Amino acid sequence: MESEAYFLLAGACLLGAVALPALLHRYAVSPAMVLLLTGVVLGATPLADSLVIYVPDEGDRLVVEHVTELTVIVALMGVGLAIDRPLDLLRPSTWRRWSPTWRLLLVALPVTIGLVALLGWAAFGLAPATALLLGAVLSPTDPVLASDVQVGGPGSSIGDDEPDEVPYAEDRTQVDLAGEVRFALTSEAGLNDGLAFPFVHLAVLVLAGGSFWAGAGEFLGWYVLGKVLIGVAVGVGLGRLLGAVAFRSRAESLRLAEQGEPLLALAALLTAYGLTELAHGYGFLAVFACAMALRAAEHRHDYHREMHEVVQRLERLLTLVVLLLLGVAFSSGLLQDLDWRGVTIGVVLVLVIRPVVAWLSLAIVPRLNSKAGGLDTRGRFAVAFFGIRGVGSLYYMAWATNEAEFPDAGWVWATVGFTVAFSVMVHGIAATPVMRRLESVPSGNSD
After folding, report:
1. Where are the transmembrane segments (predicted)?
2. Domains defined along the chain, listed by start
3. For residues 211 and 248, what is the distance between their CA atoms, to the nearest angstrom?
């Protein structure tokens, strides 16, 4: 890219980050929709000549990988700080309030991967590795583009009249139906990026060939268990350490919470991600776990709001950069390999597979909707429908195609790009009216 194009991109994204959220919040139009369409229009002009990302080129794929990677980890830190509902791994009582999350992660996620892969392989003739890659890339909901249906931020579901000094494991959140929907989607987005990564690795292993049993053992033992445990352990450990220093250090200069220094959040997310990747764990899981552990240090402290605001602003800017570049790519050939098969997969995933699979995972032996973590029929439909695809899918696709040469990679890129755009449009239009309707429903959920 030439320097003029960089300045143009930076200026457009900053203007969008400042103006669009306030301008569009009353309408059934999301900033993501506007920026994506702006990128498409910009891509049809000579101004975008230096902004084109050509994904078959290895250098351009690396740019996509690293920009989307940074965007996702920033979003995961924001999500982890924003969740008010406690989760203490040593207290099973807190796990029950996360019932929708576990159902979406342990049932809906792998079933969605399997159905998309089966559709690609059995119906459309993709190679097994490519079909599995497509399923893994398109399976996770996105922590970046789901802001319209996520929780509002630290303290947003805790009443002002609640006491400040409450043990972390005691859930004092005031949750209505809309709040339960927002919590389910936010917590799912925070965790499923890391949990989809083993299946992306599996696609690479399948492409490489080798013994089935040897490959299965490596996949389950290392890619599913080992790397997940490393990510959680590093994230929780670092979050607790930083929380102890920031809030309770004996040295006044290290008590960053008293100084109100919000850049600790950025330092935490980069450190957690870097340490975990060096230890060969899943950095996405580590960042979310670090944010949750940091939040647990002083659950009700205003410092979390300050850190969240900084992270949210950076996330908004990075998201707009990615969407603008994606729109430019649409006008510059990214969709040239798209055919009816790719369109079918994208539409069926967004409108059929995700809604049906997620609804069933939430509806079978559900937690009572009178309890925290419970959802009634309307809530289950909303959570099932808002399976937003986005920046995480682009990152996984860039990472995988940089690791190995997949058959039909150009077609998969086009299918992923179309699916992300279709999700942005469908869910962007539906988010505002659906959430307003849910917010009008009275509810008295408690533990």
Report:
1. 6-25, 32-54, 66-83, 104-124, 195-216, 228-247, 279-297, 317-335, 347-369, 381-399, 411-430
2. 3-160+171-439 (1.20.1530.20)
3. 52
